[in-house]
Write a structure and sequence with these properties.
Helices cover 30% and strands 21% of the residues. The chain is α+β, with helices and mostly antiparallel strands. Strand 2 and strand 3 form a beta hairpin.
Length: 151
């Protein structure tokens, strides 16, 4: 199934609210690596993946998966962290916030679901517990318009 062209998609991952402090500490370290130094994490994700094993590491500052040509290759990127004053990253979640389709390559819902499965397995391995959940977020891209609620 192909995602709707009219919507924006993101993958969001969270640590369980009742996770013990030692898991929270490992999650924070893992989150930092996802947002700053993630090539080894992408390799772990690919090892757990069933549909995305052959995707290359996306050699961009934010990292991710997909081909290097923005016009041809589909890509998925980790949320970029701008530093301690970046209000977007004050949550405890890890996100793939840029899911990019091209005319030639498009993500399917099955591929995104496979990435959720593989990322959860990777995160649980790094946190050393089964306390991570993930989901696909979507919203209508028209909501980005200033006149979205105007009638």
């Amino acid at each position: 199934m192909k995602p709707l062209k009219t919507h924006v998609y993101k993958l969001r991952f969270s640590l369980d609210n009742d996770a013990p402090k030692e898991f929270i500490k490992r999650w924070d370290e893992f989150k930092y690596d996802c947002e700053n130094n993630n090539e080894y994490i992408v390799e772990q994700i690919k090892s757990y993946s069933k549909l995305n094993k052959k995707l290359p590491y996306l050699n961009r500052y934010e990292g991710g998966m997909g081909g290097g040509n923005n016009l041809v290759n589909k890509q998925i990127r980790f949320r970029f962290y701008y530093g301690p004053k970046d209000y977007r990253c004050r949550d405890n979640d890890i996100m793939f916030d840029e899911i990019i389709n091209t005319k030639k390559e498009k993500w399917t819902v099955e591929e995104l679901d496979d990435l959720i499965y593989a990322f959860i397995k990777t995160a649980n391995f790094n946190v050393k517990s089964k306390c991570v959940s993930g989901h696909i977020e979507m919203f209508n891209s028209d909501m980005l318009s200033d006149s979205y609620l105007d009638e």
